[in-house]
Amino acid sequence: MLQKLRVGLAGAVALALTMSPAQASDAPPTSQVSVTLTDLSTGTYLDRGPKIRWQEGKAPDGDTITIDANRAYQTMDGFGASFTDSSAWLIGTKLDHERRNSVMRDLFDSQQGIGLSFIRQPMGASDFSAAGNWSYDDMPPGETDPGLENFSIDHDQAYTLPLLRQALKINPDISLMATPFSPPGWMKTSDSMIGGTLKPEFREDFANYFVKFIKAYEANGVPIDFISLQNEPTYQPPTSPSSLVTVEQANDLIKNYVGPALRANDLSTKILTYDFNYDLPSYAETPFADPESSKFVNGTAWHCYAGDVRMQTVVHNDYPNKTTHMTECSGGTWEGTDQDAFNATMNHVIGSTRNWAKSVVRWNMALDADRGPTNGGCDICRGVLTVAEGADGEWDYTKNVDYYALGQASKFVEPGAQRVASSTLGAGSVQDVAFVNPDGSSVLVTHNSGQAAQTFKVQSGDHWFEYTLNPGAAATFTWKGDQRGSTDSQAVGSVDLVFDQKDGTNPVVTYSPDLSIFEDQVRVGDRWFGQTVPTGGSIELTRGQQPLPRAGWTATAIATEPGGSPENALDEDPTTRWATGRGMQQGDWFDIDMGSTQTVDQITIDSGTSLGDQAHGYQIFVSQDGTNWGEPIVTGAGKSQQSTAIFPETQARYIRVMNVGAAQNWWSIYDVKVFAPTGPVAERAGEGDLTQVQRRTATLADGTEVTALYNAGTAPVTFQGDWGPTPYIYRLPAGGVGIFTERPAS
Fold first, then answer.
1. Residue 535 in contact with residue 640, Cβ under 8 Å?
2. Domain end: 363, 385, 415, which one?
């Protein structure tokens, strides 16, 4: 492991992490805790309940949420949704003046309403548009406008900009993000807002499109704080606006066009990369690994529709100087009952913020009774509000469960609040997230995700209280006063590893046992050695490898798409593949019979051009008879289209790759190679400025040893580590963190 590094990290700090106890304070928590409850089973919606008195001392044994306000994480920008063209049209044109003012206060005023403070705006038409497809520079088919002479935001003057200005007047702390669902059609290969991709000759015009939009909105009283290059850049629906943007295109646009254009025009708008689901984190990280792009990128924008929310923490830990935003998550009829939908939205609010999100954004602010107007897209999505015409011909609005779930956080967590450490009772029980507001007041948001009422305690320093929460209900607790007394770091269930930064920002990574599934792990004897590898980094053995010839090999799999074959992954043709033909499921397997026993130490798995079709976490087993597989020899995170598993040399005839994640994507393999070692193990010296590498260590309650290395320099470094007798070379990109773990195998 890293304790056995054979190169010195001369400038690094090597120490065991110790958690600072809460500092003594003259201002203990006030004697009472305020409670705000939403419980659909009793018809209770954001209602104040009886106040709770603090008790002194340690809480009695039992289910306890422990808060440590001295362990602070991300600063919140806010909670919100999007004024899509459909949403703005409904609120801005269908509601009368009185109702429009009322709904805006309900949305953005924290006293009358829920104090939303983050709005994500489509730049032009999305799949929710009352006016069909339109951009800010439309041209007749076949015509172009390279100088953007026809650029205009006049479309938004009718109802979108007035609503945004009104929102900002009610809540001046609102942050705004803008995202195109498509560039103007004339910039694209499809000459349409549907399908296609940006033509290279219009990259500069596309950058200037952002500049003109930001300046025009600012001139109309609506400053834009964030942009992303493209909504859902790898998804191309057949009937609504979209544009394919590969990660290579995105990186090029950021560093050569959009980033420089914003800087040249003295615009402070921040760029968020990706803006899509959790299942392709390498897309999010690629610009971070390129120093020329990284300097223009503030962080990552995420959507909730595929993958695991903990990927937000994985990417944060890989590049802790970059921010995290959850920028789109729609509810819809697929969720089931109102209670199911409320549960899902509370999971979204709590899960996103526990995993570093500075913003939590639903999709449509409002839709009509038919879940529209739609523009060729989702017809089963739900808005935060429903705006509908009554039997009397008058239009009015109703609040959906999304409103109340958002309100359990947004009404109390102010922009500028910091999330602080808290333990959780986990899925199927009471889940929670804690914050400290700029004025020092504390907020704890809880939700009972179980099927029965749950009584639990809340411990903050040397004070505690008890509460019982019905199944499916959410309660927000608020109080004033500082935390007093010490907090047992193990009670929180995670450790923080804090690094030094010249600008004083002190990047933090957090580690808890549940993150081990996102590591690449190797089993050596009775120990598991794990490591994370940020995109832009690598790990390789110090001896040579060569791919084994695959002639005569056979492959089988748990399922195969019609007309396909597992052996397509062995046929040397990069255009053919094996795929499950259905959404991947935990336990799916792909087996290789090499025909005879071989000595192997590396396997590569390529999911080709089917983005997101890589195994979402995998295990590799070996066998001599194809029946007895034993324990896995290696596990992998499956963060990108290409996975490389290296391990100490082993003897095997059969190899099994097992998927451990679940997703709507098929599991696809275009090519799989198995490598044999060649030549002796070699010592290799480290490269780069190792004095810039900082080292932090910690030990978890279960005995897991954690070492984190942070490259605070401006260039990659390489160093040698080992798994027992097997050495490897690790490359750590600038700004990246590698986490290394060692734990018992049992």
1. yes
2. 415
**Three-class secondary structure of residue 301 per DSSP:** strand
- Written as six digits, the tokens of 314 are 């994985």
Q: Is 285 helix (H, G, I), strand (E, B) or coil?
A: helix
Note whether 674 and 589 are same-domain residues.
yes
Q: Are residues 568 and 482 in the same domain?
A: no
Check if the beta carbon of residue 182 is closer than 8 Å to that of residue 138: no
Question: Which of the residues are catalytic?
Answer: 232, 328
Q: Are 195 and 236 in contact (CB under 8 A)?
A: yes
**Buried b vs exposed e over 137-168: b needs ≥16 C-beta within 10 Å?**
bbeeeeebbeebeebebebbeebbbbbbebbb
- Boundary (domain end) residue, out of 660, 678, 696: 678
Q: What are phi and psi of 508, to 5 degrees?
A: -125, 135
Rounded CA separation 282/722 (Å): 25
Q: Quick one: which H or E segment has residue 85?
A: helix 85-89
CA distance 214 to 222: 9
Q: Which residues lie closer than 8 Å to 204 by C-beta, 6 or more apart?
A: 257, 261
Q: Are both 297 and 261 inside the same structural domain?
A: yes
SS3 477: strand
Tokens of 88: 């703005």
> Hey, CA dihedral for 651, 656, 661, 667, is it positive or negative?
positive
Co-location of 101 and 43 in the same domain: no
- Give me the phi and psi of 298, to 5 degrees please: -85, -35
Helix, strand, coil content of the chain in percent (nearest 5): 20, 35, 45
Contact 2, 730 (CB under 8 A): no
Give the separation between CA 538 and CA 451, rounded to whole angstroms: 44
Which pLDDT belongs to residue 179?
A: 99
Dihedral sign, Cα of residue 709, residue 715, residue 721, residue 726: positive
Query: Do 428 and 563 belong to one domain?
Result: no
Beta bridge partners of 531: 520, 740
pLDDT band with cut points at 50, 70 and 90 for residue 15: very low
pLDDT at 321: 98
Residues 6+ apart with CB under 8 A from 583: 662, 663, 664, 665, 666
Nearest to 387 by CA among 37, 106, 44, 79: 106
Domain ranges, residue 173: 78-139+164-415
Q: What is the 3-state secondary structure (H, E, C) of 338-367?
A: HHHHHHHHHHHHHHHHHCCEEEEEEEECEE
Q: How far apart are CA 81 and CA 75, in angstroms?
A: 19
State the CATH number of the domain containing residue 357: 3.20.20.80
Q: How far apart are CA 421 and CA 434, in angstroms?
A: 7
The three-point CA angle 592-617-571 to 5° equals 30
> Does residue 482 share a domain with residue 396?
no
Judge whether 53 lies within some domain: yes
pLDDT for 487 equals: 85
Q: How far apart are CA 142 and CA 85, in angstroms?
A: 26
Is 330 within a domain?
yes
Q: Does the pLDDT value for residue 382 go beyond 70?
A: yes
CA dihedral 491→743→730→657, nearest 10 degrees, is: -110
Side chain identity at 582, as an amino acid letter? R
Output the pLDDT for position 27. 55
Asked whether residue 529 falls in the same domain as residue 429, the answer is: no
| This prediction's pTM | 0.94
Query: What pLDDT, in 10s, does the model give residues 301-357?
Result: 999 999 999 999 999 999 999 999 999 999 999 999 999 999 999 999 999 999 999
Into how many domains does the chain fold?
Answer: 4
* Whether residue 322 sits in one domain with residue 183: yes
Dihedral of CA atoms 37, 38, 40, 43 in degrees, nearest 10, equals: 70
